[in-house]
Design brief:
Blueprint lengths: L5 E7 L5 H15 L6 E7 L11 H9 L24 E4 L2 H10 L3 H4 L2 E3 L27 H28 L1
Helix pairs in contact: 1-5, 2-5
The structure holds 4-nitrophenyl phosphate.
């Protein structure tokens, strides 16, 4: 470990629904595991439509009802994120389309190796190949509140697996 915090960035399309929810859930799990001094979590979108905006009200309501906090301002990921100081150690995409976009932004093999799909950390989905749509967290933007509850449950299962793997990820960084 380098002494710098291990940086996790969750990524979806708009950065107002899935990736901010994933950010809040992972941060809560990291805190509960006592790893908050070692891990930083943030989020971004592959598109820039919602830069500077708060998370979707349905995402916030779903998070708050389940006891999570989130302060949010939408951001868009670019190639520069892979090279500038403090660049993410792990980029967790929400679906296979986000995965393909982030892989296309990564400048080299070392950067591509930092990109994973969020649900690849769900132990019940272990072994599926990177970019497999069966690992998708479905986009809840066009749906109703139930879609957000489903998203939260998927994120919680994946975040549990991720935090279980964190000691090893921290050791390797
Ligand atoms: P997200 O959901 O990628 O989970 O943040 C979306 C939010 C906004 C839009 C699409 C997806 N949009 O078309 O504006």
């Amino acid at each position: 470990m380098t002494g710098n915090p291990y940086r996790i960035t969750t990524v979806c399309l708009g950065n107002i629904c899935r990736s901010p929810m994933a950010e809040a859930v992972i941060r809560a799990r990291v805190d509960a595991a006592g790893l908050e001094a070692w891990v930083r979590v943030d989020s971004a979108g592959t598109d820039g439509w919602h830069i500077g905006e708060d998370a979707d009200p349905r995402a916030l309501q779903t998070l708050r009802a389940a006891g999570y906090d989130l302060a949010h301002s939408g951001r868009q990921i670019t190639t520069e994120w892979f090279v500038e100081p403090g660049s993410p150690d792990l980029l967790l995409t929400m679906d296979s389309s986000n995965y393909a976009t982030v892989i296309s932004l990564a400048p080299d093999d070392a950067a591509r190796e930092r990109v994973r799909m969020m649900r690849s950390f769900d132990p019940t989905l272990a072994g599926l190949p990177a970019g497999d749509p069966r690992l998708d967290v479905p986009d809840p933007w066009y749906g109703d509140h139930d879609g957000f509850a489903d998203v939260l449950a998927m994120l919680e299962a994946a975040a549990d697996g991720l935090v279980a793997d964190l000691p090893l990820l921290l050791e390797r960084s």
